[in-house]
Amino acid sequence: MAMSSILNADDIKKALDAFAVADSFDHKKFFELVGLKSKSSDDVKKVFTVLDADNSGFIEEEELKFVLKGFAKDGRDLTDKETKEFLQAADKDGDGKIGVDEFAALVKE
């Protein structure tokens, strides 16, 4: 499933452009700009499924680094610092990965 079938392509581009500079990523602002914050929980789960590249049921740190590419092929990689901050913000149970419920909670913050 393509991210553009869930979210507006212009919103995706606007959100990616806003965080084009390394170490500028802010997940709260990104989810708002990309239009995910206002989507239904079903749509948020669909986005999670797209980002879970290995279909493990979790977004691991390695997948998180490439999260912006999940929204568009030309998205940049997150820096190690951004990746760790994003993981820390979402990983409420401390298992080192993000489950679908943790992702949904993070989006709706």
From TrEMBL:
Binding-site list for Ca(2+) 1: D52, D54, S56, F58, E63
UniProt cross-references to Pfam families, sorted A to Z: EF-hand_7
EF-hand domain residues: 39-74, 78-109
Xref: SMART domains: EFh
One function term, GO molecular function aspect: calcium ion binding
Positions of Ca(2+) 2 binding: D91, D93, D95, K97, E102
One Gene Ontology cellular component: cytoplasm
Keywords: Calcium, Metal-binding, Muscle protein, Repeat
Function: In muscle, parvalbumin is thought to be involved in relaxation after contraction. It binds two calcium ions.
Family indicated by similarity: Belongs to the parvalbumin family.
Protein name: Parvalbumin
Organism in which the protein naturally occurs: Acanthochromis polyacanthus
Taxonomy of the source species: Eukaryota, Metazoa, Chordata, Craniata, Vertebrata
